[in-house]
Amino acid sequence: MHRAAFDGSRFTDKRWHAMAAGLPYADAWCLVAYDEQGNAVAAVTVWSAGPGRPGLLEPMGVHREHRRHGYGEAITVAAAAALQELGSSSAIVCAPSAIVGAVATYKSAGFQQRPEVRDQYRDA
What we know:
Blueprint: H1 2-5, H2 13-21, E1 28-34, E2 40-48, E3 55-62, H3 71-85, E4 91-93, H4 100-108
Parallel strand pairs: 3-4
Antiparallel strand pairs: 1-2, 2-3
């Protein structure tokens, strides 16, 4: 799913298992959305910092062949609900404003856009 949502992704099953085995994943969930035919159409990982603290949605992606059908908004809302279930006080996302589709998806799911902040930046 990740490779179908993000151009140039090198994410593999092996890398997912390594991530899931790590300590930070102890309070994280991966959610996958399916269409009526059972095809995976969107995925998101939620990261909880513990009860009463903000949680993070990262990454969220929609399969390139299933975009513009509301799957991004639906899985984003589901991710916020998952964080609430984990006890998070709020849900945050970190998406560059240049990724217009992502920003629009998060807004449609009820997120409010804040000014862009770069903690560290280096040209490639």
